[in-house]
Amino acid sequence: MRMLKLEIRRILKTKLTIILLIAALGLTFIMAYLPVTYVQTYYMDIEGNSIEVTGKEAIAYDKLVQGDIAGEIEGFDFENAVRHYQECLTSYGVIKTNELPNGVYEKEIYPYEPLYRSIMYGFADPLTGIVPSIMDIPVEKAGNFYAECEKNLETLMRIEQKDNPKAQQDAMERYEYVKKPYEFYPGYNKDALDYQIFLSFIIMTLCVVITAPVFSSDYQTEADAILRCTKYGRGKLATTKIVSALLISSAIYTICNGLYIIISNSMFGWECTKTSVQMLYSVINLVNMNLGELQLCVAAAGLITVLATVALTLFLSSRFKNVVVSLGISLMICILPIIFYIALPNDVATWVNVFIPSSGVGLVTSILSSMVDFVYLKVGNISVWLPYVMIGVGIVEIPVFVLGAVGSYIGYTKR
To answer: pTM, whole model, 2 decimals?
Structure first.
């Protein structure tokens, strides 16, 4: 325990670590605030002028105007919304909202806009993805919104997983357990979830920079030759270095992600955390969570990703004498999922990225992206939803890379 405390103190007292910690905290506050600035809306003043509001003012406006639809969204709420939409446009003799007189959209349509968006995507053609006009949706059919979503999911899975009936069955079973009716609370910007992933990616990169020199720096200065002559200079020292690096990385990640979630939810309003995932992303979605639960799930999966990547970095550090080499390879691993996503065919990239520990917080390959998608990996007769595979592989990789690092350090000879 004393060796562990000394090693943690040694890492934390280095100038580079202090700078990176300050940078991580600063970026946490900045990135938690940025999604708020992207919220914008418009309203008409008493003189008929269009006024744009942004940031906290726009959030407050949305909460005020759309407050009547906050809470559980029953089938009859969708039915009433469609009826109101059609009656409104018919009364003005138009078929499109942009043909309405000034101020009518803001007063009559915008308060129900989240429901209209959900209805259009819930009734979208699963073959083409084309969304219908609200004017073309029968009012009585809108009342069966949840049944229509289930039918569209069945058709969609037959198309996307036509050779994988087990995936089709699993998807239908998952959607059956999704809590209905959905809940919605206005004011949230889902860009904040993307920024949570981006922050996790940055934190992972900073942790890699901190941990890359753990073994390589001793090799480079040949301090390891002296340390190996001491009583605990081999296995115990290697284990201490690895545990301290993992603990420091875990602490940095947990503090920054925790602060991000608290700051973000405080600015958007904590009631927004009760919003169903389906009201933020596709209404046909397999995730049985609300926003708050999704934030925590993404944070937990991100922690697994960061620890797996740090463990791989420690393994590389134990293999290479030069700090620049171990750091360079580790940083390349951080961005590899993005490169493979762009360069390889989709199916190949999915399989390859599953085994790259950094993919869970990749900008286009993250656990969040996989949770709001319908990708299944098939091995023989087994089909597993992609998020489960990514998390499972990450959990397995941590001890594998840790044991590899210990063994590599113990057996290290000058190369």
So the answer is: 0.90
